[in-house]
Amino acid sequence: MNVSSIRTTGMGLIARILSSDFAKNIFSLVGGSIIAQLIAIGSSPVITRLFNPENFGILALFTSSVMVVSSISSMCYERAILLPREEEDAVNLVWLSALVLLLTTAAALAMVVLVTNFAADVLVESHFEKWIWLLPVAALLAGAGKVVRFWRLRNKAFKSLAWSRIGEALVASLIKMIVGFFIGAYTSGLICAFLVGGLVSLTILLARPKWIEVRQQLTQISKIRMKENAARYKKFPCFASWNTLLNMFSQNIVIFLFSLYFSPTVVGLLSLGNRVLQQPIVLLSESVQNAYFQKASRDYMESRSLYSGLVKTILILSGIGVIPFAVLAFFSRFFFGVIFGANWETAGLYIQIMAPWFFLLFIGSPANVIYEVCQKQELKLFLNLTQALCRCLAIIVGYFRFNNPIYVLILLMAVNTIFEIVIITLSILITKKMKKIAIIAT
Predict the structure, then answer these.
(1) pLDDT digit string (tens) for 220-272?
(2) Where are the domains of the chain?
(3) Model pTM score
(4) Are 307 and 431 in contact (CB under 8 A)?
(5) Run of H or E residues at 39
(6) How far apart are CA 190 and CA 193, in angstroms?
(7) Contact (Cβ atoms closer than 8 angstroms) between residue 23 and residue 281
(8) Who's near 307: CB < 8 A, 6+ residues apart?
(9) Alpha carbons 301 and 82: distance in angstroms, whole number
(10) Cβ atoms of 204 and 167 closer than 8 Å
(11) How is residue 363 annotated by DSSP?
């Protein structure tokens, strides 16, 4: 085969991949996330000049707490909505998720009461006391959004999912700028923007379904069916929920421990770096995960190989991300100083340190889906538990050994990089093994 024919074959393969429904779904979701992040990042130079790092530090502690609580607000039953063949089972999983969400929100409210009674001094010192009461409300809102998002994902409503991201980012950015201009640099404006943005996202997701279909689905709700599905997908609350909690906690452990060891100003600088880079990566990864989850679930149910699809998706993401992440690794400090102001230059340095981990986090997003689709939640639980412990250890050792946030972040980056490589490698090995078993069976 000559070079010309190889090039033609390669271009044809790329064209088929890009024209596939899976690629279109990814582009739709990723496109919405990109636009949402462009809105958030585009408004940041204005917002960072209206609010100070301390305001962002308190906001980061609040949003991180919400993300951790909401990550298991439905005990991950919402992720099972994509799996059943029968639509009736999926409907009952939606309502099962909603019921669990209400129960966990009530438990979160009880925990807030206990925390405020036993840790009042710590909360006052961190300026977090008056905001902790909003945690259950924010967790309920975020949890409801996740349940509806997976339901819309099952129905392939990718445009609604994309618009929900865009609407959330646009409204949140506008509220921050309005509050900053006309009221002042108050943390309440940032937290209000976060809550209203989440409400707008949920409203957009709920606005699209046809009410005739909704009425039909309501007639399919059954206590017996809910119990059957709760038992059938019990690995989600038993393993996937703990995986998600550990993963979310370990992602936000930096904010929690930095809030404990360093000033709100340091946390604010770190949170801007998180907002500008890590949050867009997480949202993009979530979009890729959602689209890949839908495809991988169908392939798994129809006994098709997952290996080639996983490898192709990782390679495509690697090609997309290598140049942008390389630029960030070398020039983030300069960019942050120019774009956000001299007070925020240190945030760019933090980004430079964490860039290798962020790159692996981005390209490894489909790998995390494999552990759930292939029912390997036990393995993922072990990996997440070990990673969370190592992250905590890296931060604690770095603080007591160096007492410097830069050295703490260097240790944290090394730990995260190693674990992301392990997670990606094991997911590929799992699908490769399943491919061999399928070939032998045929």
Answers:
(1) 788 888 998 898 888 888 877 887 887 787 778 788 888 888 877 888 888 88
(2) 20-441
(3) 0.69
(4) yes
(5) helix 21-50
(6) 5
(7) no
(8) 428, 431, 432, 434, 435
(9) 11
(10) yes
(11) H
